[in-house]
Amino acid sequence: MILEPLILMFIVWQIRKNLRLLLPDTHWNKNLKWAMIGIAILFILERILPITVVTNWIWRLLILGIGYQVFKLPLLEKMRTIIIAFLPLIIINAIKDLLEIIYLPLYEKIEDYLGLAVGCSLAWMIAMLIRSNKQNKALKKERDKTLAEEERNKFISAQKEKLELIVEERTAEITKQKDELMHAFTELKNTQSQLIHSEKMASLGELTAGIAHEIQNPLNFVNNFSEVSNELIDEMNEELDKGDIEEAKAIAADIKQNLEKIAHHGQRADGIVKGMLQHSRSGNGKKEATDINKLTDEYFRLAYHGLRAKNKSFNAALETSYDETLGEIDIIPQDIGRVILNLFTNAFYAVGEKTSKSASEDYKPTVSVTTKKTKDKVIITVRDNGNGIPKKVLDKIFQPFFTTKPTGEGTGLGLSMSYDIITAHKGELNVDTEKGKFTEFKISIPIKNNRAT
Amino acid sequence: MKILVVDDEKDVQILFLQRFRKEIKKGELDFVFAFSGEEALGTLRSMKQEAVLILSDINMPGMSGLQLLEIIKKDFVAPPPIVMMVTAYGDEENFNTAKALGADDFLTKPVDFKLLKEKLIQQT
């Protein structure tokens, strides 16, 4: 039979192929190559020399031995189908040959059946080989799929790494930008508090002259009344020496009145100094029960005299109308004081501008202040008969840094800070104006629950 | 002789009345008070043809002392009153303006009453 060496050759070749895939770089590759060369040499010898009887059995035993190994080693699992394909043919051929040697009559008797068995086993072999081929193909497909998947996974992880790098870069960039922004924000905040401070100082500067004037008057009274009281005591003593008790008593009453005046004007000066300190003090403003009328009047006079000190030709009629039922309400006095001062300064500026620009003889610059108590609110109205606010800038007046004054004269923070202060008191700051006629600012503060949030 | 004192500080009245207590008692000086420029003009109009010395503050709300001075010098000519100006700001500008407007004398706060007394007695 010529088939056996070919089958052996095929099996060895398949094993080598399989092993090469499963265990690359093993000595098996080389050994199996030599085995194949050995098989080829034996096959050639068999063709030349009459040794087929021996070699046929060598082939068969080798195939069976290899088959046994294939079933024993899980590594060669895939080879099993091939072995099963060849096994019947090998066994039948072996039986046939054995029978021919051992018991020829029987062999001759069943030769036809044996031939049929060989044919059947050949058919089995072909069928099994086809099946194995299909299986291999399916396996190869599977393997290809796995490989493709692996490839894809590799690609994805590579992409992922790339993406992560990009994300990291971006994150670093964003973090840097965030830090820069935070830095800029902190700087802005610092600048803002500095600006608020300089605005306070600017208005304090405006106030200083007014305060000097306001303090000078009570001080003059204190000095004058104490001096005159001194004289009066001398006079009283003279009267007593003369024995005019009635006159002495009248003088004593005058002295008493003078002492009261001294105390009154001393307190007045004290109040002004306190008010000034309150104005210059930064922050930590706490709400206190405050007499709005007194506060308003104080700042009204300070603003007026402050302006008068700077511009001596300036003059305006001051009209006041205070609601005496107002009482005290809880506010941060230095904050509300700043708002009132700011509104007055603006009002005086407005009438001053109109006086210097229109210069009409009939124009009587007037600034008025009114306080009023409603059911739940206190309303402070500051009105001037200046030129009013033009419509085009009206919605900008509460914006920070907006000013109509020449560069260097206004910070543009007065009204915006006033607005913030009133809002913090849960109140409202409204404006009403008519071009060429008047401007009226109205502060309304709720009497209760006006705590700043 | 009547002396019209114009000042927005109301306590000025008590102060003057006490400072010139003896002179008033003796009938040497007669004081009238006004607390604004506007009120001063009204007082002046009601005192026909009397010899008057006006002592006015400059810094007052409404009509200032300088405005009052200007009106007095323009409208009250027979007989022209003597006007002395008083101000808290003893500066050149107010002094010059007051002089230009025809102020007869110039005092700075705090008022030196001894000096004022001498000046008033001189005028009478």
Structural commentary:
The complex is a heterodimer of chains A (453) and B (124). Chain A has helices spanning 3-22, 27-48, 52-72, 80-102, 104-242, 245-280, 292-310, 333-358, 391-394, 414-424, and strands spanning 288-291, 317-321, 328-331, 366-373, 377-384, 428-434, 438-446. Chain A is an alpha+beta fold and 453 residues long. Chain A has 2 domains: 3-157, no CATH class; 290-453, Histidine kinase-like ATPase, C-terminal domain (Heat Shock Protein 90, 2-Layer Sandwich). A 5-stranded mixed beta sheet of chain A has the order 2-4-5-7-6. A two-stranded antiparallel sheet of chain A has the order 1-3. Chain A is rod-shaped and about 190 Å long. In chain A, 24% of the residues are buried. The model of chain A has no long low-confidence stretch (mean pLDDT 85). Chain B has 124 residues and is of the alpha/beta class. Chain B has a single domain, classed as 3-Layer(aba) Sandwich (Rossmann fold), CATH 3.40.50. Chain B is built from 6 helices and 5 strands. In chain B, strands 2-1-3-4-5 form a 5-stranded parallel beta sheet, with helices on both faces. The N and C termini of chain B lie close together (7 Å). The interface between A and B is medium-sized, with 27 and 23 residues.
